[in-house]
Each structure stands twice: as C-alpha cells, then as structure tokens.
Amino acid sequence: VGNSQVLTCTRKSNVTMVTWKINPKVGGPCTLGYRADQNKTDRTNCSDSMNWKFRPDRDPALEIRQVGIAHEGNYTCEVVATDGNFHDVYYLTVLVPPRLTLYCDDHGNPVCEAAAGKPAAQVLWVLGSNFTPEEEGHDNGTVTVLSRLTAYGTNLTNTTCIVSHPAGNQSKSIAC
C-alpha cells in the first residue's frame, strides 16, 4: 500500500492495439486503450492513479501510483499485433502493514496490538506461552489482532511482542 506498482505487458513490434482491462474487487471496471492507426490513447472509468508507464506504442506497461486496497483485483493486458494476440493476466494483491502498539492493561499484563493489517498479522511473545489472540475484521479488508499475555502474578520485567507479516516483521518490548 502507498507504493507504485508497474505491470508489464508483452512487447511486440507492429502493434495494432493495446488494451488494459482492469476489474478491481471494489468499484467498477476500467480500461486503458491504445490504437496505433490513430496514435490515440483512451481511458474509461480509470482513476488518475492508473496510466501508461511510457508511450504505449513503445512499452505498454501499466503504472499504478499510490497503490491502495481499492486497486486489488484482476488486470489483463491484451496486445494485438500482426503476428497474433497476446495476453498477460495479473491478480494484484495489496499488503497493508499493521500498526504495532504495545501497552500494559489495568491488571499489569502486556497487550500487543497489530492494527489494520492485510492480511491479518501473527502476534507472538518471546518467553511467553499463555496468550490468546483476538481478531477483528474491518470493512476495508484489514484485520486488527490483539494479544494479551497473562502472567498470573509473575513480574514480567521485560516482555517482547513479535508481529509477523508479509509486509515486514516488527517487535517491541515493554516492562509491566
């Protein structure tokens, strides 16, 4: 999320037409088209964040700037050339790194929260085994994972929470 993504498309000489067909999971479809005989590009229902990376007659790659969850979905590029039609198909999955918060609850137990990640993060404790993670799903497809480490009267001088996620791992330590 937030980065730019470039999807490549088959490069051919003697291109007649190039079409990107985009079907996001959220919202309606959009298309980007190029006709060589008129040297003309066209767009239908595409946001400004999606455009040709270069001139489509030279390189038909698609660039998505500031990728967001709404960009997730199917992307198909069709190149029509004198030697045939060529398709490249992608499914774009958007990863959202969770926000890590570590604090002590009212009973002196450490609580680790991995907020609004996509997919859900895994929360683990170093030197702790008595915990139960709770997950809360959000409308935008992200998930918050909350894990409370119960020590039952044991003084935890320094506890470390580890959040494992495909967008990157994080850890924080706290003394409760």
From TrEMBL:
Q: Name one GO molecular function term.
A: signaling receptor activity
Which InterPro entries has this protein been placed in?
CD200R (IPR040012), Ig-like_dom (IPR007110), Ig-like_dom_sf (IPR036179), Ig-like_fold (IPR013783), Ig_V-set (IPR013106)
The answer, when asked if NADP is one of the entry's keywords, is: no
Q: Where is the Ig-like domain?
A: 1-93
Q: Where in the cell is it found?
A: Membrane
Q: Which Gene3D superfamilies does the UniProt record give?
A: Immunoglobulins
Sorted alphabetically, the Gene Ontology BP terms of this entry are: regulation of neuroinflammatory response
Pfam families reported for this sequence: V-set (PF07686)
Q: How does it sit in the membrane?
A: Single-pass membrane protein
Output the superkingdom of the source species: Eukaryota
**What does the similarity note say?**
Belongs to the CD200R family.
Q: Give the organism, scientific name.
A: Aramus guarauna
> Keywords of this protein's UniProt record, alphabetized?
Disulfide bond, Glycoprotein, Membrane, Transmembrane, Transmembrane helix
Q: GO cellular-component terms in the record? A: external side of plasma membrane
Q: What is this protein called?
A: MOR1B protein
Principal location? membrane
